[in-house]
Design a protein that fits this description.
By secondary structure, this protein is mainly beta. It is built from 1 helix and 13 strands, in the order αβββββββββββββ. The longest helix is centred in the first third of the chain and has 15 residues. The termini are far apart.
């Protein structure tokens, strides 16, 4: 009996992720009130280089909970104490198929240097959901570049430039 109940729960969960069709001349998908919730996690690591001499790659993970409605989001990096010389700015879009709850990742290359400085940070922001079935539980993540250099501590004046998610995800706007 317990096995049958589990199977029924799996079938109901899978069916809840699919849109309902509204009959009529302008048939469209209607989503029940159970959104997909997205959350992006912070990432912190040494600035690098890694053992092969390549730049460090910071991998931000977006997790998905709730119902598995289809849709997508845009993402963009934002300077903090780390500027574009410290990491490669990036932006784009991530999509989710109906029922697909697997995590997504955003990779940001961090440029190593040989200057001793304080730890630096930048932000990755997810925005512009393409479906009303997508909501954010956490839309902003911090990337912390941990200094791994030796020598005299450099104390620069830090600019703070915020990037906005643009209408075109391949365009980064200051």
């Amino acid at each position: 009996m317990l096995k049958k109940l589990r199977r029924l729960a799996v079938l109901i969960t899978a069916a809840a992720a699919l849109p309902l069709a509204v009959p009529g001349p302008s048939a469209q998908a209607v989503f029940p009130p159970c959104p997909r919730y997205l959350s992006i996690a912070d990432y912190r690591a040494n600035e690098g280089p890694d053992v092969s001499g390549a730049a460090a790659i910071f991998t931000f993970t977006i997790t998905s909970t709730g119902c598995g409605y289809p849709g997508g989001v845009d993402y963009s990096t934002i300077e903090g104490t780390a500027t574009w010389g410290d990491f490669t700015p990036t932006g784009g879009s991530i999509s989710f198929a109906a029922g697909d709850m697997s995590p997504r990742t955003i990779a940001v290359a961090v440029s190593p240097d040989s200057t001793r400085e304080r730890d630096e940070d930048f932000t990755v922001k997810i925005c512009h959901p393409t479906s009303g079935g997508i909501q954010f539980t956490r839309a902003v993540a911090q990337g912390t570049i941990i200094n791994d250099d030796v020598g005299e501590l450099k104390e620069p004046g830090w600019p703070h430039i915020e990037l906005k998610c643009s209408e075109n995800p391949s365009t980064i706007v200051r």
